[in-house]
Specification:
There is one protein chain. The protein has helices at 52-58, 108-115, 136-141, 153-157, 164-171, and strands at 10-14, 27-34, 37-42, 46-51, 70-73, 77-86, 96-98, 102-105, 123-132, 146-150. Strands 1, 2, 3, 4, 5, 6, 7, 8, 9 and 10 form a 10-stranded mixed β-sheet that branches. By secondary structure, it is of the alpha+beta class. One of its GO terms (cellular component) is cytosol. It holds the Pfam family DUF179.
């Protein structure tokens, strides 16, 4: 039986009061979601004091003309593992196309290409990822916690990090200031 890509290529937004401080105001670009589990890259927060140049130096890569862009907090799973979420105009050793909306690479070749000015036209670097086991995210989606919106690359690449959460809700026609923390009872 072929697996279905449920939320792949969409953006998950943490609802207020999600109950896990690691995900407060989280914005997650979903890269894989099927019957085996789910994986997404957090794009709603950066790691204070860590830029691309420092990361490149750790791999002994000359940053060249690459901007010293901030490194994102990709999620709490494997926080020392790096990923590059990027436009689909570049592909490398392990690049995965995500529903034609963006691509995900996790090997050093993408960092070298960015430093050499030969990489993807749009990109962001993240450490760690958000991961869910089999049916875990499906269960979480039935409770108050996550809201999914269409995967708009503009939210990822054209919106300031501190505005991505609000922009995601606004794209769905929701004023995030009106969201409540708790639910009612009938």
């Amino acid at each position: 039986m072929e697996s279905q890509a449920y939320l792949t290529g969409q953006i998950l937004l943490a609802m207020p009061g999600i109950g896990d401080p690691r995900f407060e105001r989280a914005v997650i670009a979903m890269c894989a979601h099927d019957g085996q589990g789910a994986l997404g890259i957090g794009v709603g927060a950066t790691i204070a004091g860590l830029g691309l140049h420092e990361l490149l130096q750790q791999f002994e890569i000359d940053p060249g003309d690459a901007p010293d862009a901030p490194v994102h907090f990709g999620g709490p799973v494997e926080p020392r593992r790096g990923f590059v979420l990027h436009s689909t105009d570049w592909g490398g050793q392990d690049t995965i196309d995500v529903a034609g909306k963006w691509a995900l690479s996790g090997t050093i070749d993408v960092l070298r290409a960015i430093a050499e000015g030969k990489g993807p036209s749009r990109w962001l670097v993240a450490l760690g990822y958000a991961g869910w086991g089999e049916e875990q995210l499906d269960e979480e989606m039935t409770r108050h916690g996550w809201f999914n919106v269409p995967g708009d690359p503009g939210i990822i690449y054209d919106t300031q990090v501190d505005r991505r959460w609000e922009r995601g809700f606004e794209a769905a026609g929701i004023d995030p200031r009106m969201l409540g923390v708790g639910g009612g009872t009938a």
